[in-house]
Design a protein that fits this description.
- This is N-acetyltransferase.
- InterPro entries: Acyl_CoA_acyltransferase, Bact_Acetyltransf, GNAT_dom.
- It comes from Nonomuraea aridisoli.
- The protein contains five helices and seven strands; from the N terminus they run ααββαβαβαβββ.
- It has 150 residues and is an alpha+beta fold.
- The chain has a single domain, classed as Gcn5-related N-acetyltransferase (GNAT) (Aminopeptidase, 3-Layer(aba) Sandwich), CATH 3.40.630.30.
- Strands 1, 2, 3, 4, 5, 6 and 7 form a seven-stranded mixed sheet that branches.
- The longest helix has 15 residues.
Length: 150
């Protein structure tokens, strides 16, 4: 994964969270090369607004596709795989945050049936993983999109 997608500290953190039962890292592979990933956050949301209005709802975070493989359906397949897994585990909804400056992602999610919730943008925390292992937390405003499963 790291060889093709980079972000070694990020993946180490997510695999640790997965081992603790807080989520699941899904990775798209083509010819033995990681070409995309998404993390399914199963722990309680960090944002108080999400915990209050969407208690227990899983979150899709950090959907990414390698730049040389974008616009080929990989992101869609990752979202579908995450949704199928959540549905099989009994989840009825899934949510995600997308930056207002990311219209391509917004279009993808809307095409997949996600709708913006009526409570406005939410301040989220974007964690920047530095090569030396430091984690820098940055505030990021996001639109919250929700989709009913099933």
């Amino acid at each position: 994964m790291v060889r093709s997608l980079g972000q070694e500290p990020y993946f180490a953190d997510r695999l640790t969270k997965q081992d603790a039962g807080h989520g699941v890292l899904l990775v798209a592979w083509q010819s033995g090369v990681a070409v995309g990933d998404v993390y399914v956050w199963l722990a309680a949301a960090e944002e108080p607004e999400l915990r209050a209005r969407l208690p227990g709802v899983a979150l899709l975070t950090h959907l990414e596709v390698a730049p040389w493989r974008r616009n080929r359906g990989i992101g869609t397949e990752l979202v579908w795989a995450a949704e199928e897994r959540l549905l099989a585990e009994g989840h009825e909804q899934v949510a995600l945050g997308v930056g207002p400056d990311n219209p391509d992602a917004q279009r993808l999610y809307q095409r997949l049936g996600y709708a913006e919730w009526p409570y406005g943008e939410v301040a989220t925390t974007n964690v920047v993983y530095h090569p030396d292992g430091r984690q820098e937390r940055q505030r990021e405003m996001c639109r919250v999109l929700v989709r009913k499963l099933g």
